[in-house]
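Annex B. Sample input.
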Amino acid sequence: MQTLPKSISEFLETPYSLSQEQIDFYQKNRYIKLKEVLNLETVIFFNDAITKQVNAMNQEQTALEDRTTYGKAFLQLFNLWLENNVVKELIFSKRIAKIASDLMEVNGVRLYHDQALFKEGGGGITPWHADQYYWPLETDKTVTAWMPLQATPLEMGPLEFSAGSHTIVEGRELEIGDESEEVIQKKLRVTDFKHVIEPFNVGEISFHSGWVFHRAGANVTDEMRKVMTIIYMDKDMILKNPENKNQIHDWNTWCPGAKIGEIINSPINPILYSN
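Annex B, continued. Sample output.
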């Protein structure tokens, strides 16, 4: 098992300064990309550690061409922090958790869950969708940190955003798939929301809220696009009555034992940062 170098451990505890302009940008658009959140040493180290853990957990046997649109989008592995104490150090980083808390303007955040999203060379698009369709959470005080583990040019399929689209209700009821890509894309075409497609530098991280619409292009390179994500919620988030089968699944899987109408405080939803 790898051990975390002291320099990286200390770096992950070091605060990242946000300006009021950056917080205001996030509040308006419900996404933001921040440069140099991680340094090169940290990215290289966790690229290796997370890749090894993904390889150990991955059970995908189906050939890429035989999968559904969703299956072609990425290899998806959840809650690596429960399996690997080194990866846990990244997931529990106060540096990243404080950014999430500050952007949402809350008094602290707890973990919803983490997931690795590895888009294989030749992997397909990630269709337009809003994450919070899947989540039995009372408010929109949620944010996902999307952390590429390498520089991610357009050819690898970086995350794309429809800035400010959290105000759109149409399309929220759709699972990620061919229908969500078609319906949401059609809706976004007739709005004034800016479609943001940009590469990611090494160490650059994006943060997006649960209801903002986003997608990713295909990976037309022959390299794996490796991304680690952390989903944060307000530390005082209430579990709502689930509205679809996916929210029932998420309740049982990511908030086990939580009660409707009460703060989600299960053993796998720890507070990661508090003011």
